[in-house]
Amino acid sequence: MEDNTQALTQRFTLGKLFRYVLPTIFAVLLASLYTIVDGIFVSNYGGTTAFAAINQVSPIFMIIAAIGFMFGTGGSALVGKVLGEGDRERANRLFSYIAYALIIIGIICSVALWFALEPLLNLLGVTETMMPFCLAYSRILIPALTLFMLQFYFQSFLATAKKPGLGLLFTILAGITNTAGDAILVGVVSQGDPIRAVQGAALATAGGLFIGGLVPLIYFACKNSSLLRLGKPETDVKALGKACGNGSSEFFTNISASVINVVYNSLFLYMIGDMGVAAYGTVGYVNSIFTAIASGFVLGVSPLISYNYGAGNTDNLKNLYKKSLWIVIIFSVVSTVIIELLSHPLAGAFSHGDEKLMQITIDGLSIFTLSFLFKGIPTFGSGLFTAFNNGKVSAIIAIVRTLVFNMATIVLVPIIFFHVFGSSYEAAFYGVWYSVVFSELLATLMCFLFFKKYKKKYQYA
């Protein structure tokens, strides 16, 4: 126990902290590449409509996967705190109980979605041309939803168990499986048939989830060298509720992001048609890369914060908070510059030679990327309070950031642009892209207010 927890209590330099969380960052990043790899293959072998279809249906799966993210982040914060208090046996019982509860919920969600899928797609406004592709893609992925949830769950707990490198290994194997499956099933077997292309992409993703979700389950169920092992659970509904409360911010963040994607897809579908959805899909993929890296950092550093908070080590908390802020700020600035410079090749990867689609994507990406300057701080802020087991503040940040600021700016900014910069379609169109920039700026200001308010209570600054 002492050897296993030594890394959690060390004093980190900026470089050491970054190296410690790097495996978790890569693990989350690679997991997010599933749909991106699917998108690249489908857009090039299935066409614009097939590509738009998987972007239209993906938010549904991300909403359900967010349950696993909630259980993982909230549960690992709780279990990490218990480990810091020195009660390893109870930590394992709670870890097992939360995992078993998630499996049951995952099975229920899969069955419910199977029967509710087509009415739900109609409710989301899926067009007749996209409906066959959405159904073909979804019917294959739905049975694998529990594994999707478990993958997010175990990504959080592998960091808590001081095995972030193992989490990276599982995700690399899953990514290789997914990419190889896309290359074979979409690039070769589909033979240019759009329906077979989306089915092949779904099968490839399901294969990756089998590695990313089931293999960690087997690892924790067997005797291992980590801090955690699946075994006899401690039936503690209150603790389960606490874990869900802790992770509610991450849940609402993912839910809201999916809702926002639906809103953006609907707006661009109305304004441009399938091409608009395809353009936003590319921008959404780039955004998911940034979000995955930021979330991976938070997942990697949260167990350190939770453990040192439980152990009462305020000096380490102050050091972790300061270093984490610097890493987030540097990453945000560097990411913005890099994506702005790469906007042309990124747009070209998904436009399959369509010059109009490529130009729309470049215009949107160059504006949307400015939001990366502000996205990192709210992501870290929400995760910070989750690590302190303060689900209330964490949830407030997530809900206000996404459902209040995002929804308000998505309505108001296009209207303001329409009247200030000329009553034209182009002004409103650019206003839609700029809305997320203003939303994230407001969220960043809100987070700094919370940082100032709670620094004495948690003694991190």
Question: Mind summarizing the main beta sheet?
Answer: none
Count the helices. How many?
17
- Radius of gyration equals 21 Å
Order of helices and strands: HHHHHHHHHHHHHHHHH
Task: Compute the average pLDDT.
Answer: 83
Domains (count): 1
Structural class estimated from helices and strands: mainly alpha
Choose one word for the global shape. Answer: globular
User: N- to C-terminal separation?
Assistant: 29 Å
**Poorly predicted ranges (pLDDT <50, ≥5 residues)?**
none
Q: What proportion of the residues form beta strands (DSSP E)?
A: under 5%
How many runs of DSSP E, i.e. beta strands? 0
Helix content: over 70%
What does this molecule look like?
- There is one protein chain.
- With 461 residues, the chain is mainly alpha-helical.
- It has one domain.
- It contains 17 helices and no strands.
Which labels suit this protein?
single chain, mainly alpha, 17 helices
What does the secondary structure layout of this molecule look like, with pairings?
Blueprint (H helix, E strand, L loop, with lengths): L1 H8 L4 H32 L2 H37 L3 H36 L7 H11 L3 H16 L3 H26 L4 H28 L15 H10 L1 H24 L2 H38 L2 H28 L1 H9 L3 H14 L3 H16 L3 H30 L4 H34 L3
Helix pairs in contact: 2-3, 2-6, 2-7, 2-8, 2-11, 3-4, 3-5, 3-6, 3-9, 3-10, 3-11, 4-5, 4-6, 5-8, 6-7, 6-8, 6-11, 7-8, 9-16, 10-11, 10-16, 11-12, 11-13, 11-14, 11-15, 12-15, 13-14, 14-17, 15-16, 15-17, 16-17
What's this, in brief?
Helix content is 86%, strand content 0%. With 461 residues, the protein is mainly alpha-helical.
